[in-house]
């Protein structure tokens, strides 16, 4: 297996820390968060450009950032919906677009979506962002240049997040298990796929 230089965005979060730990066993990881140096906020496109200027020679990019707050449908006016989609959907697409011109040949980008069984109260904006991201990845993958690949991980509930919120209802998957999907996306040959935890 080839050792790769992997840029992990969102490395300070619950899932991001698990992804960094899993990848660091076999790869050289550059962990990035909003507060790191270099750092990045996916809602600010200029920061994405600055990030790739600072880390120009990565083999892979993993994004474990960009969540969407739960919001009741009745509160989703145009501004609230645009804000909900800005980083989760458009920020990750901006990350992919810039990575496509900066990564080494044959590199990969792994984004983070989401998938939940049933109806999630307040989850309509998140569902839109996640479905849009999966559709975009599936369509964009064949058009990427230089043998680049892109996939999206749809982790569902992460157990540590549920524990932190004090929620006992839905069952989550430990972050270390979800992190294996990101490792598989970086090391594998698939592209245009949505990777999910096995039921």
UniProtKB/TrEMBL annotation:
The keyword Cell wall biogenesis/degradation does not apply. Keywords: Oxidoreductase. One of its GO terms (molecular function) is oxidoreductase activity. It comes from the Bacteria. The keyword Oxidoreductase applies. InterPro entries: NAD(P)-bd_dom_sf, SDR_DHRS6-like, SDR_fam. It holds the Pfam family adh_short_C2. Belongs to the short-chain dehydrogenases/reductases (SDR) family. NCBIfam families: PRK07578.1. This is Short chain dehydrogenase.
């Amino acid at each position: 297996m080839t050792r790769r230089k992997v840029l992990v965005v969102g490395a300070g979060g619950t899932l991001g820390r698990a992804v960094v730990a899993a990848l660091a066993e076999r790869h050289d990881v550059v962990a990035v968060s909003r507060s790191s140096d270099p750092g990045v906020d996916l809602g600010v496109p200029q920061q994405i450009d600055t990030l790739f200027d600072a880390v120009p020679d990565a083999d892979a990019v993993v994004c474990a950032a960009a969540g969407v707050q739960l919001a009741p449908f009745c509160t989703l006016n145009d501004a609230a919906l645009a804000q909900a989609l800005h980083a989760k959907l458009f920020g990750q697409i901006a990350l992919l677009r810039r990575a496509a011109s900066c990564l080494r040949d044959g590199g990969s980008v792994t984004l983070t979506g989401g998938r939940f069984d049933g109806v999630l109260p307040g989850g309509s904006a998140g569902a839109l962002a996640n479905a849009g991201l999966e559709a975009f990845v599936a369509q964009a993958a064949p058009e990427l240049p230089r043998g680049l690949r892109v996939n999206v991980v749809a982790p569902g509930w992460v157990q540590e997040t549920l524990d932190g919120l004090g929620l006992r209802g839905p069952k989550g998957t430990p972050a270390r298990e979800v992190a294996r999907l990101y490792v598989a996306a970086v090391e594998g040959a698939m592209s245009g796929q949505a990777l999910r935890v096995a039921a």
